[in-house]
């Protein structure tokens, strides 16, 4: 039985897209999903890259996880498949209740390295989750502030092994 | 003679890096510049990717511009060299005085396509500057909201010509 507040894969449909509007980091990605649904480019209830936690009927936390292929890996050593995590967000009424940590633990459970690029000042949270700043490389990061999480046996790419 | 409020190339030195601290989008990039300077990895007064406007002695606006090679272009048609613009910011006391527009006009003067990925809600401004939303592609944009500017003769890459 699924616990009421387990992390679930989210599916693309009008109801979910409507719930997404409550999140601050609502942008082109979501608008493009609505368009694709309207134009029958994607089917109703097709898989999205989002995961979330419901509290009753309400989506109260979400994040997106995308598996990046090893050939595009510029962060880890050895170069390997990793997860790009974005738009991790818990609705204001439910902050401080451990949902953010539950989402990140879910992401870690794939046992792949994780990269994220938090848009809001949240370095304290990510540090507690065991993430570290990637060594800044201008050509790669272009002003971004990537954070990475390394599972056992994986290290950060350095200029020596790039 | 340089006008007092012309756009200037900024050089990496402790004074400039100190002035950068007033800007909201201060991050790993700047911290890494300080470290590189302290460890003599970069020379004092070496070129930075930043441009700025001084009002008297004070840096009141800045942005970073980086030329991306044609082989990495995933946005334009035909694929070509373009400018990645980031961290455009005018200090609060000087907003609404046209400095943002002056910076963007400077970037446009290279006559290369421009891509930017604004972190703060500023779509109205970018629209006025003639920028448009790039058609969202998940594998490329990973949750970001890129905006592009097309000089004459350049169009957006579509899935047809990718």
UniProtKB/TrEMBL annotation, chains A, B:
Its EC top class is transferase
A family per Pfam: Acetyltransf_1
**Out of the domains of life, which is the source?**
Bacteria
Enzyme Commission (EC) number: 2.3.1.-
Quote the InterPro entries the UniProt record gives. Acyl_CoA_acyltransferase (IPR016181), GNAT_dom (IPR000182), YlbP (IPR017274)
Q: Where is the N-acetyltransferase domain?
A: 10-155
Q: Which Gene3D superfamilies match?
A: 3.40.630.30
Q: Mind listing the UniProt keywords for this protein, alphabetically?
A: Acyltransferase, Transferase
Family matches, as HAMAP family: Acetyltransf_YlbP (MF_00824)
Name the NCBIfam families for this protein.
PRK13688.1
Q: What is the protein named? A: Uncharacterized N-acetyltransferase GCM10008983_24510
């Amino acid at each position: 039985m699924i616990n009421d507040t387990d992390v679930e894969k989210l599916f693309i449909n009008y109801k979910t897209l409507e719930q997404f509007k409550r999140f601050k980091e609502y942008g082109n990605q979501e608008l493009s999903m609505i368009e694709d649904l309207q134009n029958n480019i994607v089917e109703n209830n097709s898989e999205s890259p989002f995961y979330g936690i419901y509290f009753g009927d309400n989506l109260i936390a979400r994040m997106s996880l995308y598996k990046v292929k090893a050939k595009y890996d510029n962060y880890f050593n050895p170069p390997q498949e990793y997860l790009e995590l974005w738009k991790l967000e818990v609705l204001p009424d439910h902050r401080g209740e451990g949902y953010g940590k539950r989402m990140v633990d879910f992401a870690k459970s794939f046992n792949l390295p994780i990269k994220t690029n938090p848009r809001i000042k949240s370095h304290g949270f990510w540090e507690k989750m065991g993430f570290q700043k990637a060594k800044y490389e201008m050509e790669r990061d272009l002003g971004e502030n990537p954070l990475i999480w390394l599972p056992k046996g994986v290290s950060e790419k350095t200029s020596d092994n790039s």
